[in-house]
């Protein structure tokens, strides 16, 4: 009987894996990529008054579309709250989740999902009103905290306060905008989230200069795109779209010089851009998949700077998100 139960369980797992396989073919048939993003977070995924989406996470989706279709515009975006995001991906409502989502053990091994890389290395931080006079997080004992529900921030803050023998009262909200509104209305003493999100939320305040982000970073929050388990081909495609963007920067290939590099570049440039080798064929893509990403979306540096870096309102420095040989930890496996 035990053997029968085990075999039945294995069969169910196999059926689940087979049911989720073939995402590339499904996406190609529908003619566009269904991409799950945030409900609105400046620099990462935000819709403007014309209904156009932009941001670092949005560029991941655009890169996937460029690789699959040769056209970065073939994407439909679905705004998802933190509570909704994993269910939407598990159910097939979206083909990929690119929504400032932290890679954790529990999410990676228990939800039937795979994280396909890191596009932003982040950490949990604190934002307070200047009038509070707080200079460090250790002064927040007994304070009220604005937190977005369903995020890894909830456990990070709980651990930090327990370790420092401090207490706090959580005031939770469903969306980032609601969390910011709660902070601005005075419902809590501080707002806690990933530091990148704090900078994004601060510029949405009626008076951004009234709030400061404290220096402490209390957790590791690697953010990246997520796919369903059971489809290795799709997992590989999304993973290597991220890597191609990072490797493009490392090789000095930009949207401005990509045509020249394709024609006159070094052997590594030619492999990346599909002139030599079979990187695209091995994934079921055209030879110019990475060329299309860099030509239409840009390399990692271009995406970072225009969305969250010095060319954006957020003015976030590269920090950990600089290339490994320039003081950061950003690194792509070899494209060969």
TrEMBL record:
Matches recorded under Gene3D superfamilies? Periplasmic binding protein-like II
Q: Which Pfam families match?
A: SBP_bac_3 (PF00497)
SUPFAM superfamilies (alphabetical): Periplasmic binding protein-like II
Q: Name one GO biological process term.
A: amino acid transport
What residues does the Solute-binding protein family 3/N-terminal domain cover?
Answer: 32-261
Q: Which UniProt keywords apply?
A: Signal, Transport
Instruction: Please give the InterPro entries that the UniProt record associates with this protein.
Output: Bact_solute-bind_prot3, SBP_3_CS, Solute-binding_3/MltF_N
* Cleaved signal peptide residues: 1-21
The family classification in the record reads: Belongs to the bacterial solute-binding protein 3 family.
Please report the name of this protein according to its UniProt entry.
Amino acid ABC transporter substrate-binding protein
**What's the source species for this entry?**
Leucothrix arctica
Q: Print the organism lineage.
A: Bacteria, Pseudomonadati, Pseudomonadota, Gammaproteobacteria, Thiotrichales
């Amino acid at each position: 009987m035990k053997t029968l139960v085990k075999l039945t369980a294995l069969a169910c797992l196999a059926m689940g894996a087979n049911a989720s396989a073939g995402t590339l073919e499904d996406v190609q048939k529908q003619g566009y990529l269904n991409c799950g993003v945030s409900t609105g977070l400046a620099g990462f995924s935000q819709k403007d008054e014309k209904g156009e989406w932009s941001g670092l996470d949005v560029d991941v989706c655009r890169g996937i579309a460029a690789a699959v279709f040769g056209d970065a515009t073939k994407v439909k975006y679905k705004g998802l709250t933190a509570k909704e995001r994993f269910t939407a991906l598990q159910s097939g409502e979206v083909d990929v989740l690119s929504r400032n989502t932290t890679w954790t053990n529990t999410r990676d091994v228990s939800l039937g999902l795979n994280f396909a890389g890191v596009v932003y290395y982040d950490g949990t931080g604190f934002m307070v009103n200047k009038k509070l006079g707080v200079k460090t997080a250790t002064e927040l004992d007994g304070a009220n905290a604005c937190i977005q529900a369903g995020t890894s921030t909830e456990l990070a803050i709980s651990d930090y306060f327990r370790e420092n023998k401090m207490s706090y009262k959580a005031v939770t909200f469903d969306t980032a905008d609601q969390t910011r509104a709660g902070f601005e209305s005075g419902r809590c003493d501080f707002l806690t989230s990933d530091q990148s999100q704090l900078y994004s939320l601060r510029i949405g305040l009626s008076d951004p200069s009234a709030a400061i982000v404290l220096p402490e970073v209390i957790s590791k929050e690697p953010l990246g795109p997520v796919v369903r388990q059971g489809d290795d081909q799709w997992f590989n495609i999304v993973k290597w779209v991220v890597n191609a963007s990072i490797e493009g920067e490392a090789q000095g290939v930009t949207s401005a010089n990509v045509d020249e590099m394709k024609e006159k570049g070094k052997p590594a440039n030619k492999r990346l851009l599909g002139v030599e080798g079979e990187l695209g064929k091995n994934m079921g893509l055209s030879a110019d998949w990475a060329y299309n990403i860099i030509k239409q979306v840009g390399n990692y540096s271009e995406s970072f700077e225009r969305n969250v870096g010095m060319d954006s309102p957020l003015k976030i420095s590269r920090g950990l998100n600089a290339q490994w040989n320039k003081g950061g930890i950003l690194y792509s496996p070899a494209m060969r």
